[in-house]
Amino acid sequence: MSGMDFLQHLANGISLGSLYALIAIGYTMVYGILRLINFAHGDIFMLGGYLTFYGIMFTSIPWWLVFILASVLTGLIGLLLEKIAYKPLRDAPRITVLISAIGASFFLQNFGIVVFGGRPKAFPIPDVLNKVVNLGGVSINIITFIIPTITIILLIALTYFINKTKTGMAMRALSRDYETARLMGIDVNKIISITFFIGSFLAAVGGVMWGTKYPQLLPLMGAMPGIKCFIAAVIGGIGNIGGAVLGGFILGLGEILLVAFFSNLTGYRDAFAFVLLIIILLVKPTGLLGEKTTEKV
Q1: Residue 271: CB partners within 8 Å, gap ≥ 6?
Q2: For a FRET experiment, which of 18, 43, 90, 150 has its CA 20 to 30 Å from that of 25?
Q3: What is the DSSP string of 125-185?
Q4: What pTM did the predictor assign?
Q5: pLDDT tens digit string along 207-224?
């Protein structure tokens, strides 16, 4: 492999890792507060892509505004999902909430098939995002640079929000001790709703960017990326936002470079995530940046 080819694959790996990181943050935020794996998160990602598709195809709104509105609307759908599927089970056993999350995922997948149809749809990529940049003889699509940039900007904004605002401090308090936070006057339901909105918004941004990078939409498109992003969150240390980002980049770069160096393993690309997960769990069960905690019964 030449140096130019390596740079091409490296750029693609960083871009894919950025997408995984965006979606993994939503998993890790919800788990950090509720100790819940939101299995419908990948399907929220799918809805973000479809809402953007219909917004561009059937309205005269500028594409960049459609991207923003679709992400906000998807965040509100995530909020509605929390109200319907999770809030009534707040004090139920965790296995009950887990079953509800799996049911919500299947519902959204089948809802997508019924409403959007089972045939693939071509994502409408704006011309400005479809340009190719030549860097030292390497041709790279401009979206490959835009995706990591957006991820970094959103990560900085989220870090500021969590560390510097009262709502962010309430989120951190909930993640440490649910009952004590409630006794101190924190509106638990409000904070959880905000968490779901932010996580779903980030998943939607990931869905929009995924559509521009891999322009094909399917109702089941969120299933495998959703599982991989959950794996990324576990690899980094689920409950840790920085860990989710780290896990996303490791997974994205690993997948692309595996195929680049060992082309005969292309068919095992998806298996790489699961193999890496097993290795991490054997070596460091809490994840790379995770902290050892004691579960309360």
Answers
A1: none
A2: 90
A3: --GGGS-EEEETTEEEETHHHHHHHHHHHHHHHHHHHHHHSHHHHHHHHHHH-HHHHHHTT
A4: 0.89
A5: 899 988 888 899 999 888
Which of the two residues, 291 and 205, has the higher pLDDT score?
Answer: 205
CA distance 297 to 286: 19
294 in a structural domain: no
Residue 244 domain-assigned (yes or no) = no
Instruction: Please provide residue 132's backbone torsions phi and psi, each rounded to the nearest 5 degrees.
Output: -110, 130
Domain of residue 37, residue span: 21-219
Phi, psi of 66 (to 5 degrees): -60, -40
Query: How many of the other CB atoms lie within 10 Å of CB of 240?
Result: 22
**Residue 238 counted as domain residue:** no
pLDDT tens-digit series, residues 130-174: 888 877 667 788 888 888 999 999 999 999 999 889 998 988 888
> What angle (nearest 5°) sits at the alpha carbon of residue 20, between those of residues 197 and 56?
65
Compute the C-alpha angle 130/251/139, nearest 5°. 30
Q: How far is CA 269 from the centre of its chain?
A: 19
The answer to whether residue 245 sits within a structural domain is no
Residue range 37-86, pLDDT digits in tens = 888 888 999 999 999 999 999 888 998 899 999 999 999 999 999 999 88
